[in-house]
Amino acid sequence: MKNDNWWCGRFRGCGYKLTVPREAILDVLSLTDKHLSAEDIYLAVHKKYPTIGLTTVYRTLDILVSIGLIYKFDFCDGRARFELAEDSKGKKHHHHLVCTNCGRIVDYTDFIDDEIELLQLTEKGLSKKYNFKITGHLIQFYGLCDKCR
Amino acid sequence: MKNDNWWCGRFRGCGYKLTVPREAILDVLSLTDKHLSAEDIYLAVHKKYPTIGLTTVYRTLDILVSIGLIYKFDFCDGRARFELAEDSKGKKHHHHLVCTNCGRIVDYTDFIDDEIELLQLTEKGLSKKYNFKITGHLIQFYGLCDKCR
DNA sequence: ATTGCTACTGAAAACCATTTTCATTAAATG
DNA sequence: CATTTAATGAAAATGGTTTTCAGTAGCAAT
To answer: What is the spatial distance, in angstroms and rounded to an integer, between the CA atom of A54 and the C1' atom of D25?
Structure first.
């Protein structure tokens, strides 16, 4: 097990052990630009490590979400999807545009700046008015892609 | 069966029959300000009409969503939740603030105007750039409420 | 290196919201 | 009122996710 990956510190700092399955799962996520489901990840990991089980994939994803290394999304197709958090790996912050017919997902980074600005303003207002400690937001567009429209 | 409810036309216009279960389900939804799950609705309907089944509730909710009479939301607690579309019944358009600890949901209408304006601008931009026919958006905030923080 | 502690693991079973199946019933139309 | 066809309820199936449990492997202290 190599201890030189960028996420090792993050793991140990949270009291989690560094294991082969966890490293394999993070590898898969850091090498794709797709929005993988737990099963997608399981299948990808399975090619290199056939002994790693789906249960472990689910458990690991839970941990990764909880320590903020990955994000979990619901694109309304009945399964959760995961992607690496953008600050982890030189990825750009983006939002999603989802085709409700074929499931295609477009990551867009245009328009983001205005969105972020407004979101921060709203978060501040909500936080004050309702005394919430805001931890996150979700903004997503749905529609029909060029092929499906 | 009274044929004088505001939704009768909407139903018939879409080729759906007006039935007791459908009316009962819409009644429940129009009398609450909560975000009910399919089971919540089933239980509420069940008090007055014990013969109406959960299956029918699910089927009716599907229809209501598809004709735009209600909205379906995912607040990440493992079940879908439903509420009457705001244009149906003098309800104000709002977005949601969700407590990730206790599940409390705050409907907020402040800040909405700016949000809507930005969303429309973004929709226009996305629609042009990616050739999507945008049909909807989702914007939601997560955090810890005053009791849970 | 070896040990001991404890977290981690895989397989199987359980879970649970939602969907499907199918035989029966009831709404709408004329 | 009869006919057509959609709607219904019960039960079974589905399928993503979680739990259980006995065995395994990280890792800190020796």
So the answer is: 19
